[in-house]
Amino acid sequence: MSCPVTGRATDSLSSGSTGAEPIVLDPLVRDREGEIARLRESGPITRIDLLGAVAFSVTDHAEARQLLTDPRLVKDINRWNAWRDRRITREWPLIGMIDAGRSMFTVDGAEHRRLRAMTAQAVTPRRVEGMRPAIERITADLLDRVAELGADGSPVELKETFALPLPMKVVSELMGVDAKDHPRLHELYDAFFSMLTPQEERLAVIEEMDVFYTRVVAEKKAAPGDDLTSALILADEGGEPLTDEEVIGNLKAMVAAGHETTISLILHAVRALLDNPDQLALVLSGEVGWEAVIEETLRWASPSTHLLMRFATEDIEVAGTVIPEGEGVVMSYAAIGRDPAQHGEDADRFDITRTLPIRHMAFGHGPHICPGAALSRLEAAIALPALFERFPRMALAVPNEEIRNMPVMTQNDLAALPILIDAADR
Ligand code: STR
């Protein structure tokens, strides 16, 4: 069998790591659970092959926690040997995950603190809480549409109708992106993340996103609004405002992150509850709260499968392995969330009755910890109860095993989630 993306043999996909051979990750994600299990078996630090780029994967909670605060690991792609040697170029399908312009996502140290401070200031708990009415309104409107589509008993595709539009509407409202641009943005992000997109097309997509966000920033400069993009333009933390490139980079990062990851959180929570009716009953009766559902989903079905990438600025020894200077390090959050040393021997099980707080790392750790965590939790805490209150007899419209991941290596992205809004005999 050969890989449809690279044309290379994929026989090693199912055999896992043999000795010093890196684990070859499947760009089509045909067996996500199997891949996580193989990573866990060869952790805590193992080598993975991502479409021809070999990197170190961190699979355990303790090592991840340690490395995420280690200043010897940085985001600067110029510290990557493979990039410096031109073994990896813009032709590599995952390049957009690393070479994403100057933003708080791609810099470290004092520069990072400067870029991040203004965003952190802007995404205050008050501002997030202030989004509540908007999120409630958006949720209610989308649910009306779901009800309409499913009224005749036919299946409704919950990703397209609910989980996908919600986060884009919310993050756009926050950042000041116009609703008329949402359909195109959805297409662009689908093409950006899918490993089936020809690389030439992906580079054109990245270019179009840059043009788009450059225009948004220019418009906000001309006519500032009550949005975070305008706040980033106007902020002058210690007399040093952000450059246009930095504003554009931060805007891009926040829309991409706010959109892609929250879809995943909502869809996986719904899927897991519908696949575990006994647990859903505990939630619907009020015995277990939505917070437990959300935190368990983040742990068990981390929206970020592999976070690319950090680079070793010197040899780093961790858990008996040396990560040599210039090598890339990937945080494999999907595996980290399943670490039995952190979550118990049944870590592979979805179980909302775990004691809170569940100390997962789905939002990362250290200086780059997700600045949007509170917003995504709020979105899920509004969307999930609203959905199940509206459709208490909802059920999966296809067997759970038939639900597929998108051909996306870094994100836990479902292709679709068909549901029946009123399955009398669930
Ligand atoms: C996508 C492309 C882009 O224009 C900017 C960014 C920066 C933020 C990244 C985003 C990326 C991909 C998804 C990420 C997000 C930060 C959090 C999110 C990695 C590269 C996660 O999946 C955790």
Automatic annotation (TrEMBL):
The keyword Oxidoreductase applies. Pfam families: p450. The keyword Heme applies. Keywords: Heme, Iron, Metal-binding, Monooxygenase, Oxidoreductase. Gene3D superfamilies: Cytochrome P450. Belongs to the cytochrome P450 family. This is Cytochrome P450. It comes from Streptomyces alkaliphilus.
